[in-house]
Amino acid sequence: MKKIIYVMIILLLAVPMAIAGGKKSYVIGFYNLENLFDTVHDEGKNDYEFLPDGANNWTDAKYDKKLHNMAKVIRAMKDDNKVYHAVLGVSEIENRHVLEDLVTMPEIADANFQIVHYDGPDRRGVDVALLYRPDLFQVLESRSIPFDFNSEIDFGMTDEDKAHFRTRDILMVRGMLGGEMFAFFVAHLPSRIGGKSTALRSRGGEIMYNESMKLMEKYPGIKIVAMGDMNDNPTDDSMAVYMRGKEKIGEVGREDFFSPFLSMLKAGYSSLYYQGGGNIYDIIIVNSNLANAPKGTLKIQPIVKNQGKKYYGRVFRKDFMTQQDGQYAGTPFRTFSGGAFIGGFSDHYPTYIVVSNK
């Protein structure tokens, strides 16, 4: 009898150990929330169009609709994947308050998302942030990295222009995911509106790359994911040259990054439409430690199969998120069109990758 009890105890102890050492998969994504503003003025920020008496007549009812719409998309991704994102980078958010409202929406409250956010220098007040599940990802440190001009890149700008220039900081969050060290960069690189030069976005890529190399030197083996609205395609200099993004994993050397959405762009996928053309500005790119991870450790996995090809990223697109008729049919169903509130979701589709130790 004692022997039977002893065996049962050993088996019971072995079950959680087997689970802990078993297959682990995590969804890591990015979503541009398209002007998630509250209805209250933030001192020092040009948020006047998003006030009840502003140009957008931004009322509590519209704000509530926007929150539910964003939560509906995040929930839909969970329903597709059978699990919430472990980590979700977001952009175009006004402040921490809007994120606190978002993560408590009934559609996604059970995810218990926590927030990493810093107020940045953008004159409109839009920032980037990271949502994460604390049961899966444990934060060790975070930093808000400012944009600067300490580069050999030719910006074609005067010193006065440089001093006046403001853009979003880049967020870096380092922590433990599945018992392994990860660092996440979340960026919203300078817009193309107003003819802003490619050099500015190239500098954004250069900053993320240099910071990544420092982390890899300090923490050998660290796995790095850079994500964001880059306002560039994976083929543009910011990603292909300054982030050293490679199309195929076999091309990725120690100091390179694997750019999974590069092949998807070439195959005709789009996360947004700009000036009539489809683009993937919502990019996720990973370092060599994650692309070429040893067997049994977390590694980026193919998640989309199309016409015999495997892709390592996904542009999440559903009918309810897509304009169904009119001039912009087939493009993301956005919040505003022609200055009018149309009750949509975002002018970007979210993107994500999956990492697993299988």
The pLDDT mean sits at 92
The backbone outline, from C-alpha atoms, is globular
How would you spell out the order of helices and strands? HEHEHEEEHEEHEHEEHEEEHEEEEEEE
Taking all Cα atoms into account, the compactness measure Rg is: 21 Å
Q: Approximately how much helix is present in the residues?
A: 25-40%
* Major sheet attributes: 7 strands, mixed
Per DSSP, what share of the residues sits in E-state strands of 2 or more residues? 25-35%
How many separate domains?
A: 1
CATH topology: Deoxyribonuclease I, Chain A
- The CATH class is Alpha Beta
CATH superfamily: Endonuclease/exonuclease/phosphatase
pLDDT below 50 for ≥5 consecutive residues: which ranges? 1-20
Q: What is the helix tally?
A: 8
Straight-line distance between termini: 39 Å
E-strand count: 20
Q: Please identify the structural class as seen in this structure.
A: alpha+beta
For the record, the CATH architecture stands as 4-Layer Sandwich
